[in-house]
């Protein structure tokens, strides 16, 4: 979706991100890097229709003459609609010459995460005045092995039904208030047909490949 924003607010977020200073190797650092402000210069300059018309006049003959004006610009990817279910997919491979190598580094992730520093100031389904967009962890997928072979297991939290979340999914209603505590429940580790109760600390120490969070309402 392309929209014209006020330059003063186009890069503003629901919560201040300047003081975040996220720890490297954490999911907060991953999100911070993914949503950072990028400068488009040199070969990455943006084609500007306004600048082109200002320089060459009406654009009726511009295409045929291939005359365009490119300008320096800023780019930032922010969340404009906070989802009921947040799924984070971690890139666990890197290029090593002509081969792909699995990344086994542990990435820290919390039970409750606040997306406000990564949401646009005009996030569509956040109640006016809210400066927090909180999510509670309820599922993790982990992969063991290499790029060529391995095994997937999962951690899932058994918890009570969140009726407010159902309303958000079905009706798109904006939450009026957010809880600050994670949803209570028992964690289980699932590997094929084997299921075992585990602690939250065991879950948080896993080598996460996929993270699943639900919106706290």
TrEMBL record:
GO terms for cellular component: cytosol; nucleus. Residues 1-216 form the USP domain. The keyword Hydrolase applies. CDD domains: Peptidase_C19K. The keyword Translocase does not apply. One of its GO terms (molecular function) is cysteine-type deubiquitinase activity. It holds the Pfam family UCH. Keywords: Hydrolase. GO terms for biological process: protein deubiquitination. PANTHER family: UBIQUITIN CARBOXYL-TERMINAL HYDROLASE. This is UBP16 hydrolase. It comes from Haliaeetus albicilla. The lineage of its organism: Eukaryota, Metazoa, Chordata, Craniata, Vertebrata.
